[in-house]
Amino acid sequence: MLIEKLRKLPPRKRVLILTHDNPDPDAIASAWGLSYLLKKKLSLTSNIVYSGLIGRAENRALVKGLKIPLDRYENHAWNEDRSIVMVDSQPYTGNNPLPSDVIPDGIIDHHSLRKTTKYERFAHIDERIGATSTIITASFKRQKLFMPKKIATALFYAIRSETKDLGWEGSDLDYKNYLYLLPRVDFQALHKIVHPRLPQEYYRMIKTAINRSRIFKTVVVCPLGKAPYPELSAEIADFLIFRENLDLSLVMGIYQKDMYLSIRSLRRKVNSAALMRKIIRGFGSGGGHEIMAGGKIPDVSSDSSKIIEETITKRLLNALSIVDVEETKFLS
């Protein structure tokens, strides 16, 4: 049980809850739920820390609308006065700011346990489920702990978005906890999260994505170029994959000096996480799940970006055994 593992944390120490960079709803909600569990069951105070940027409109609406307390990462955060618990992420994967010489006390995640992962006290990892928020919700249930409506709304939206309404990688446990949360949700707040106001820049980037996307049989590849925020690659990958006659999308976008990659797949025989690691090898790091994955390539210059995009595209097509196929435009 998660609570029993959390009891291994030192008493009276403040807890630093660390999410991955540019946290998504699952990371945000599970971290917030964990903070409440620590306070109510173990009398431990905590703060949630993230690096990067929260740029996607839905994610900003989630944090702002529910008033979720998040702090930006600071270099001085790593000290012996606080326990470190990682949520929806694991150390040394390239998607969080944890230094290589710091070992977290605990890890709560639904991604596969990485060989490089280290921890001091516990790892609560269940890769059978679709969302880390399911782990947190299940702990509330087992403890029969009152759940505030705002936290319930965040966890509900996280499970919904992470599993695409339980259609992507949703397990029986995700389904049961989804139903548990349902009567506790603030649906007015949820509506504002699911349907946020979108800036003009979003539509401009959709136009750019459509114009730059290339189709190879049933695969669409989009070298997006400069992006206004890191999560846009994932947002565009979600958008492109549902065009008819497609079953896999790869989007590459550059935010500041880093390239962010996202894969979405309807191919059940293709493991997206393994595919991402294969095509990004030597450039950066990546990971994810069977049908969705993300990657990051640091310090990409304007001179090297085109070469990297073409190399990764060729690797992707070779890995999928797509050869001697003429590319077409997204709108032909």
Q: Mind summarizing the main beta sheet?
A: 7 strands, mixed
How is the quaternary structure best described?
Answer: single chain
- What would you call the structural class? alpha/beta
Radius of gyration: 20 Å
Cα separation of the termini? 54 Å
Give an account of the 3D structure.
- By secondary structure, this protein is an alpha/beta fold.
- It folds into two domains: 193 residues, inorganic pyrophosphatase (n-terminal core) (Alpha-Beta Complex), CATH 3.90.1640.10; 130 residues, Diaminopimelate Epimerase, Chain A, domain 1 (Roll), CATH 3.10.310.40.
- It is 38% helix and 20% strand.
- The chain is built from eleven helices and 13 strands.
- The strands form two sheets. Strands 11-12-10-9-8-7-13 form a seven-stranded mixed beta sheet, with helices on both faces. Strands 3-2-1-4-5-6 form a six-stranded parallel beta sheet.
- Strand 2, helix 3 and strand 3 form a beta-alpha-beta unit.
- Helix 4 packs antiparallel against helix 5 and helix 10 crosses helix 11.
- The longest helix is centred in the first third of the chain and has 18 residues.
- The radius of gyration is 20 Å and the shape is globular.
- The protein starts with a helix and ends with a strand.
Task: Walk me through the topology.
Layout: H1 2-6, E1 14-18, H2 25-42, E2 46-50, H3 57-66, E3 70-72, E4 82-87, E5 106-109, E6 122-125, H4 132-143, H5 149-162, H6 172-181, H7 187-194, H8 200-212, E7 214-216, E8 219-226, H9 232-240, E9 248-255, E10 258-265, H10 272-280, E11 285-288, E12 292-297, H11 302-319, E13 328-329
Parallel strand pairs: 1-2, 1-4, 2-3, 4-5, 5-6, 8-9
Antiparallel strand pairs: 7-8, 7-13, 9-10, 10-12, 11-12
Helix pairs in contact: 2-4, 2-5, 3-7, 4-5, 4-6, 5-6, 5-7, 10-11
